[in-house]
Amino acid sequence: MPDYDIEAAHYDATRGGVPRAEAAAAAVLGLVPETARTLLDIGCGTGLVTQRLNRSGLRVHGADASSGMARIAASRVGPTIVRADVAQLPFRDESLDAVSAVWLLHLAGIASHAVVAEAARVLRPGGVFVTTVDKDAGHDVGSDIDGLLTPHRTGTPSDRADLITSYAARHGLAPVAEARFPGHGQGRTPLAAADAVRRGRFESWLSLTGRPAEQLAASLAALPDPERPRADPEYRLLALRKAA
What we know:
Layout: H1 4-7, H2 11-14, H3 17-29, E1 38-42, H4 48-51, E2 59-64, H5 67-77, E3 81-83, E4 96-101, H6 105-108, H7 112-122, E5 123-133, H8 135-138, H9 144-149, H10 161-170, E6 173-182, H11 190-199, H12 210-221, E7 234-242
Parallel strand pairs: 1-2, 1-4, 2-3, 4-5
Antiparallel strand pairs: 5-7, 6-7
């Protein structure tokens, strides 16, 4: 997994920047009830999305385990950003109307259950947890890059929708709605995909190392138009409501 204290300085520039953040925030807000007065964005990163979750009458908080990320987020959002383990949030039981998690659970591994449980704990009855699911699947746009990567997919992504729904059910959360939004500027190039394979950036679902990884990277780099981005991904959001 990347060191997000180091990644913080260039994270936004390599993750779609403002257009992607605006699309994500709009989709999240579309699933948050108008009656909500408090929202916590967990795994908030640099706060680029968090900053755009502000709307009239909604107080927005953010939490991230990385001090580098939280520092940048605080410069954008203010003192409502805290550095915290998202599986041990510094918020009281049933104290928030909404919790959002954008591009987080795919990184959580076996801890994804603990993250869902913690979101449920801090939500008031009737509150909603809004989270991205199936992130890696969203990047499969049927391109020539995907044609090379797909045969090497292994394991079960920790943000798979059916897993998250089952975890949520154990803590009184039930799905009520969903939305999709585009990952502006996130279409992969063959060269970027090759570099990601070499660096182990697909570790959540691709277990190749050594010579097999290098062979796959070489095949990706040899694709036509290696610097041309393929289609942007489409991300999926689930809204899960806590029983009243």
